[in-house]
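User: Structure please.
Assistant: Input sequence and predicted structure:
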Amino acid sequence: MVNKYIQLLVILICLLIFSATGQDFKKDLEKINKLLIENNIQIQMKYNAYKNYTSKTPVESVSCTLKKSDKGQYYKMGDQEFIYTKDYSFQADHSEKVLYLFGQGIPVENNLNEYMKAIDQNISNYKQIKFKEENGRGIYDLYCQDMDYERIRITFDMKTYNIKSVVLYYKEAMNLEYNELDKPEKPRLEIVFDEIKTNVKFSSSQFNYSSFLQKKNNSYVPKEEYKTYEFINKQSE
């Protein structure tokens, strides 16, 4: 499930910039996005996977840290660490004790206008949108079509516009507990934002692989604390 969480983390901000009609979804999400796409931001999150729409006990919970600046992006989820820059991407798999270096990076863009271009282009993804306010929090329920989800619920603070949670209600039934005796059910994934910090001062090594790799004889090798790890260099691929 961890790999699935990682994929969701990468697309999470894209999910939030979809548009629809409702209370004023477009304006509300613009305010949420202003915070989410800031430079020098750190977010603590937890991914809770449930076997169905109503279950109270998660099948699996994974904590995640996201750090982002104009230098790059860093993710830590469970025993996986990822670094993305415009020049390369890096992965430390601590469960398998493998370090990967890839040549393909990702654009590090933090221009609100670039993100907001996506708004109004995805209205057809939602059959219906509903809004309600509870205890100072705004809640949008997006009823989907042509997506992997039946519904997406976004909860945010009405005063600060800090995102509080995103819940994905999957359309396809599956068995998250891998028990052959259990009937597959439609699961849900709850992404809880525990803490959001802005204007964070990151160390110079936060967004590069220097904490893991060192150069030796014109090639990269794991540093002393990772000497038992295998290193796979895929920069040329």
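The longest strand covers residues 188-198.
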